[in-house]
Amino acid sequence: MQPIKKINNYYKAIACAAFFLCMKAASALPGFTPYIEDASGEYVYYEDKTFTRKSYVGFLRYDEATYAARYYAPKTDKDAPLSVTIFVTLNPASDHMEITGEKQIASGSPRDGEIVNYLEDMMYTLNAHRIKAGSIVREKERIVPDEFMQFGGKVVIEYDYLIPLFNVKRIAKGSDMSILFDVVSVGKLASSKDSAFSNFSGFPEYYADKKNHAPRKKTAAKKTTLSFDGQKIDADEDWVQKMDNMWMLGNDAVISMASLPKLAETSHRAEALMIRRLLEGNGTSYADWRRASVRGAAGGYTLAAVFYDDVKKKATRIVRKLIKKNDGSYAFFTMSVFEGAYEPNKSYFEGIADSYTAVQ
């Protein structure tokens, strides 16, 4: 795990950020008003399964008038990796997508022109379908039957307001609802120098390191309760307290409990924005949305996702729980476990997370 000082600074940053999460986030693509407005630096990646080789397409918002789209196909036994990016400027006053300028960064492949056309078509078409879908404000995803030429006609589009830009979660087709287009990662750049969007290269097929991790012995340590500021969980004495609000299980896992201040705006929209931020990747840590989940309702949520560090080649399972207190602040529980340790001990870690309670 990370050094204790770095972990502590991370939770301080989360607590500070939560207070400002509901300030004006920014705006959106032309023609529709999303439930959660997009912020500069937010991006989303999808796997487009209509290609014969594994292919990803991503979209990034730089500012109100500047966006990027990128196609990436990993290396195969027969083909070199292929990466093509376009940067476009839009007319923010238009009620539809109107590209006013474009710059291309291509790989020199004979397919570059074809891929550029694909990216342009996807931006235009996804925006048009999002406008057509109208308001998406439901707690859960919205399913919309539609006609999508790029995917062969009649499809079903699943929308989710937690996903930035077009709010598209997946596109499926046929009686078996075969998935053609599926969200794989959502993130936010930390600065203009952050290269996370341009460096995205997908996720490993498997995360767990079976060589270095094994199921915990059934003769587990003595049971105990970990508590902080009205919050508590049932664990065991293998968890060593490192700070008032933090415990570690060797180098495999860390638990923390904290309080987040009252949001600047007290609304469900503000909570939704906070949830989106907590599920976004940052820097070299990419959020794997194939393994992301949100459970609960207003005032109480359980968030889970796997975050993959593309530099260290390590995956971490992070479970977060938010419980709104009577004064408007939030009890905030976080459990981070290396995926290699989590997989063979899933019921053990789930039992700890499920035992979490907080005084409201």
Model description:
The protein is an alpha+beta fold. The protein has two domains: 4-23 and 209-358, Mog1/PsbP, alpha/beta/alpha sandwich (Protein Transport Mog1p, Chain A, 3-Layer(aba) Sandwich), CATH 3.40.1000; 42-199. It has helices at 4-20, 112-133, 196-199, 268-278, 339-342, 346-354, and strands at 42-48, 56-63, 66-73, 82-90, 99-105, 142-148, 153-159, 168-173, 178-188, 223-228, 231-236, 240-243, 246-249, 253-260, 285-297, 300-309, 314-324, 330-338, 357-358. The strands form three sheets. The chain has a nine-stranded antiparallel beta sheet with strand order 5-4-3-2-1-9-8-7-6. β17 (314-324) and β18 form a beta hairpin. The longest helix is centred in the middle third of the chain and has 22 residues, at 112-133. It is globular and about 65 Å long. The model is unreliable at 3-25 (pLDDT under 50).
